Amino acid sequence: MDASAPYRLGFRTQDEERTNVRLPTEGSFPGWLRGDLIRNGPGRFEAGETRLRHWFDPFGMLRRFRIRDGDVTYANRFVRSRDYEHAADGGGVRTPFPGTPPDRPVWTRLAQVLRGTFPDNPVIGVQRFGSEFAAVTESPTALCFDPDTLETTGRIDLTAGLDSDLTLAHVHYDNDREAFFNLGVSYGRTATCTLFRRPADGGTPTPLTRLRFDDAPYVHSFALTERYAVVTANAFGLDAAGLLRGAFTRETFLDSFEALDSPTRFVVIDRETGAHETTVTAPPAFVYHHANAYERDDELVVDLVAFEDDRAVTGLTLSNLRSESPELPAGDLVRYRLPLSGGDAKRERLHPGPVEFPMINYRRTNGERHRYVYLAETDGNSSLPTDITKVDVERRTVRRWRESGTHPGEPVFVPSPEPTAEDDGALLSVVLDPATERSDLVCLDAATLEEHGRARLPHALPYGFHGQFYGPDSPGRSMA
Q1: Residues 169 and 136: beta-carbon distance below 8 Å
Q2: Are 344 and 264 in contact (CB under 8 A)?
Q3: Of 117, 252, 310, 459, which residue is the least packed, with the fewest Cβ within 10 Å?
Q4: Is 58 helix (H, G, I), strand (E, B) or coil?
Q5: How many of the other CB atoms lie within 10 Å of CB of 235?
Q6: CATH numbers and ranges of domains, the chain
């Protein structure tokens, strides 16, 4: 363990791969909890001899926890993307990574920029298309994998049938329609977002509308209510000229990220017809993740994590995150109230940060009024979260789970089979313990945050991003 900055373990390569290892457990997992928690996130922080520079650059590694009758089996495996294989063969960085330029000749780098080449390294999350499981990121490509072995089995062109360069990794699942809603995005001097609907089996998408912006705002996720989709266009985005210049200067997406001369824009769209209902503005902010949104009277209520500025992106360099005094971008849980008549949003802080990875009881409350939001919260001089926090947004009360010296990951909510309340269920989080150089899968009671049990991994996992729980009572989606 690095005594001066133990959280550095969360940014260290783990090359060991395991298949179907039964994990020793302490306490007990609820008997009703049956299914697979599949997570994604960084696994390797080098491409050959090249040290990757930004937290979004490392090669994706899948982690699978299979829970049956209180037993937990574990597997982890790198996604065998073309980027990964190129690096494994000694080729370094193949395509333009967010913070690391390609290890390619200048004419290759220029051709990649002109063609709009994106990495195929899926490091953000996972998605299920019918019986197919896939690792996803902000890319035109998803990579399929076997949920038992995690072996990479194929590729899906996510932009087929869409006039878009890429699709987002954060999609919404509509249980009633058995369909996904997502955004296709094209970046250049301006940006275009296409709201589309795709059958749950991964069939042909149906474009609903195209939003054209006069600049290039970055969009990472969006919100969905019963009637509307809310596209949050950040007040920060891309300088296309900087991307083109980077082919010669080796500047990257990170170097081209800048403040735009515009406010934060919430574009409200009718999710059935694609009609543009209104645009509501707010002072500049940066948003990765929405918690939820719902309709109330003549307004929409949108809860999300908001950062002050572009340091939410530029501050996530690995050199900063590994430093003894990291300058961590601090996001707050905030509520925006959007008048359906347009105009300006009203903003209220629900809980001060640093917080991220907002989670709700998705199956029960997505698009409807919710009471609870679960978050990963950071307290103190650390690059990684130290608490799992439950915010009651109605009563404005807070509960926390903390284990000294450890770093919990995204809390994934799994509802009980016959829930009696919104918070009747379990939270699953992968917790990094630098002192033992090991990670644990921890199961908490979602109502009280008391620990049910934990399964101990044979090694430490780098800190991950997003995952889903797939089981008989959560077959489609456990989060946005």
Answers
A1: yes
A2: no
A3: 459
A4: coil
A5: 23
A6: 6-470 (2.130.10.10)
Question: Taking each helix axis from N to C terminus, what angle separates 240-249 and 106-115, rounded to the nearest 10 degrees?
Answer: 160
- The single residue listed with the structure tokens 């081209």 is 256
What's the distance, Cα to Cα, between the start and end of the chain in Å?
Answer: 34
Those residues with Cβ within 8 angstroms of residue 343's Cβ, 6 or more apart along the chain or in another chain: 280, 281
Tokens of 119: 């990495």
Q: Is the pLDDT of residue 475 over 60?
A: no
Beta bridge partners of 101: none
pLDDT per position as a tens digit, 264-298: 999 999 999 999 999 999 999 999 999 999 999 99
pLDDT tens by residue, 92-143: 999 889 999 988 888 787 887 777 788 899 999 999 988 899 999 999 999 9
**Where would I find the beta strands (DSSP E) of 124-275?**
125-129, 132-136, 141-145, 152-157, 166-167, 172-174, 179-187, 191-199, 206-212, 222-224, 228-233, 236-238, 257-259, 264-270
Segment 1-20, tens digit of pLDDT: 676 789 999 999 999 999 99
> Which DSSP string do the residues of 340-357 spell out, in sequence order?
TT-EE-EEEEEE-SSEEE
3-state class of 249 per DSSP? helix
271: nearest Cα among 225, 329, 202:
225
